[in-house]
Amino acid sequence: MDTRIYVDHGATTPTDPRVVEAMLPFFTEQFGNASSIHQFGQDARAAVDRSREVIASALGASPAEIVFTSGATEADNFAVLGAAWANEARGRHLIASPVEHHAVLEPLRFLQSRGFDVTYLPVDRDGRVDPDDVRAAIRPDTVLISVMHANNEIGTLEPVAEIGRLAREGGILMHTDATQSVGLLPVHVDALSVDLLSMSAHKRYGPKGVGALYVRKGSNVARIQHGGSHERNRRAGTENVPAIVGFGVAIRIAMECMHEEAVRLRRLRDRLIQGLVRLDGAHLNGHPVERLPGNVNLSFEGADSESILLALDFQGVAASSGSACTSGSLEPSHVLSAIGLPPEIAAGTIRLTLGRWNTDEDVDQLLTVVPEVIENLRAASAGRPRRAVPQRAAQRSGR
Ligand SMILES: *Cc1c(COP(=O)(O)O)cnc(C)c1O
Q: Which pLDDT does position 382 carry in this prediction?
């Protein structure tokens, strides 16, 4: 029996067996190209359109406004670059939060290198944008505002609806990356006043490598992938039919159990936060209430992320750091820097993200294992030279 505990649902989720089941025939009997005129093609086309309807209805959108992509990274690139290229004659200024995913920040940086101007908004200690700062940043040449719906690291929910209204008043395109929230919290494109919205299947128990960009009817957005006339000429490339089918089923299941799942995850999350935040030198990152149901992000003074994660993995607990890890050296993540967390505290940050199959027993286990690991690491670093953890890492990689 697998006694390991997976609490890294912010990175990816296991594919729901019902999703896998629904996908299988589309690899074999129903393998058609959705652009083909014959029956094989028409069957594939019908399946793609069913998924498109499910996803559109989950967002309060119409099916023609959904463009399938290879995931949220492509959807984010599409939104940022597509809005910039299409509106270049009108203006070359964009506004974004500094806590966006790299899939938004990197295209913005690319645009900056080509002469576009980007205003990065301030955020408070919880990582929230103040709509007043958005209002102050808007200029006559602003063409896009991009603020995520829920932060993937610290779980904070952003006031997207208020920002969306400001964008609308200014006639500016509004994009939100809702990858972490679609299917878990209500996400309605009209309630949020957004023109562009990114999502991904594998964060909601669907397959990897498929996602979508919602593009409001009439929005001026250029395509970034050129070729055939797929997806109403907005995204070239043969549709990944099995993945799109899986995406649709994953979203349908998520919508059916959304409320129940959110309530259950909030309860597990709050048990975990309450049990861990009382440890010496522990800090909760992100908003205490306005946060993703399954997200726990904590910093522990006097312990470093990588050592904590290796020790947890050794105990069968799969978690992640709140930091971008580059070849073993831990730089504080851009999110933790943006919320003003001192680097020495950011260095001991871990993210535990709960999901559909985590239980109260998992939380009990985490409430035993995490404090032990932190205590051992602190004792090790206080008592003797820091050798225990690298040795353990070497031992692991030798297996
Ligand atoms: C995971 C994630 C992405 C990237 O999605 P992929 O489908 O893996 O490319 C983008 N934004 C957020 C907020 C995410 O959590």
A: 81
